[in-house]
Specification:
The chain is mostly helical. The protein has a domain at 7-57. Helices cover 35% and strands 4% of the residues. The chain contains 4 helices and 2 strands, in the order αβααβα. The chain has helices at residues 12-21, 29-39, 43-52, 91-95; strands at residues 26-27, 56-57. A two-stranded parallel ribbon has the order 1-2. The relative contact order is 0.11.
Length: 102
């Protein structure tokens, strides 16, 4: 599969022109990733060059995950980052070490 970038992601100058035509003064992480991939350069180098043209990177909002009344205050058993203490005996993984029967 051949990657064919959008016209605005073919070069730094094309992207800056695209932003100025669209009256944008910012770029997001998706644009930064697309540009870095199509130009075979690091995200840091692309970001520095875009910022030299006067564009700024928008901040990503952190997704809020409020805790309910029934969840533990230390978030050990419920929610993101939790560590549930279940999942079976592990017999299935141990039995697979020797390979299939036969």
């Amino acid at each position: 599969m051949i990657y064919d970038p959008d016209p605005e992601h073919e070069s730094i100058e094309a992207f800056v022109e695209y932003c100025l035509d669209d009256e944008r003064e910012t770029f997001d992480h998706a644009d930064l990733g697309d540009l870095a991939f199509s130009l075979h350069r690091s995200r840091h180098a692309v970001r520095l060059e875009l910022e030299s043209y006067g564009l700024t990177l928008t901040k990503r909002d952190v997704e809020k995950r409020p805790r309910g009344f029934s969840t533990s205050s230390n978030d050990r058993w419920y929610g993101p980052g939790s560590s549930p203490m279940h999942g079976g005996s592990g017999h299935e993984q141990i039995a697979g070490f020797a390979g299939p029967k036969g």
